[in-house]
Amino acid sequence: MNKVFIIAEAGVNHNGSVDLAKKLIDVASEAGADAVKFQTFKTENLVSINAQKAEYQKKTTSTEENQFEMIKKLELDVDTHKILLEYCNFKNIMFLSTPFDNDSVNLLDDLGLKIFKIPSGEITNLPYLEQIGKLNKQIILSTGMADIGEIEDALDILINSGTKKENITILHTNTEYPTPMEDVNLKAMNTIGYTFNCNYGYSDHTLGIEVDIAAVAMGATVIEKHFTLDKNMKGPDHQASLEPSELKAMVKAIRNIELALGNGIKKPSKSESKNIITARKSIVANSEIRKGDLLTKENLGVKRPSNGISPMNWYDIIGTIAKKDYKKDEII
Asked: What highest taxon heads this organism's lineage (predicted)?
């Protein structure tokens, strides 16, 4: 089985601080994630000056600022991207970032990123999809708020622009922070995989880690999860993020599930084979039997261990003649 690609989503949980961003990279690396992902945007290209916040953002940030003012404080400049990319290389973890506008796509391409993550909000942004599709990179496409038809349209644009279908992984997700359990609809992840015959995964915004573990058991090849240094920090996404110990527990659980899924062939495992003799049974003498006696249902029984004749041969033995004397419980 291929290893699940785990993306630790730092997002904007650095609060605009390079030092905090580096600490987030430390946490993701120590947890064993494959990549740590930030967000790349020019605020002026992303939101209009009067755009209001989402409902969850209103609950987690100051009511005195609009969406533009909130996001502007979280913007990372080109030099910061270079610093974080270099630090990720030092910490042996892949640097990823989600571009939210066309200039940001160019910036990340110039930095040499091999994987481009398309956020849910851009799945209906045709010129943006075309621009990324032309790069012919590995693409991870999030599908929050989308239906099957919208996913199909986005795929067509990416493929027609120059990206090979086998280089696209589609993530099922729900764009509510945190996502209520009744809205996860994890089976839709498999629907995506069956419908498009593609690699699929799950980007999680629920509280806790159990849905991520279930997604891996259901065939997810990519898992993305927000994390933070402290859920109580100020900022829009901290409360719906994992803390360091939770991220570490999630990665460990996913790696265990990978091992547990195995190869799908049903046969005795290496660890259990030694227990076959003690756990299974053989045909034994149910009472004292003399040489020449007829072997019957009455004088035969089935008991452990299994190093004699298998009870599956029961009717081959019944009605035959004993070739020697047997004590009670002796294996036939």
From this structure: Bacteria
